[in-house]
Amino acid sequence: MIDAPDISAEPRQRTSQFGARVVSNTRVASDVAVLRLQAPAAAEFHFAAGQYVDVILRDGSRRSYSMANAPDDSGVIEWHVRAMPGGRFSCHAYEALKARDLLRIEGPFGNFRLSSSRLPVILLASGTGYAPIAAILKSHGAELAARGGYLYWGARRREDIYAWEEAQALCARFGNVYFVPVLSDPAGDWLGRSGLVHEAVLQDFQDLSGHEVYACGNPLMVDSARAAFVRERGLPATAFFSDAFVTGLTVRQGDS
Question: pTM value?
Answer without folding.
Answer: 0.90
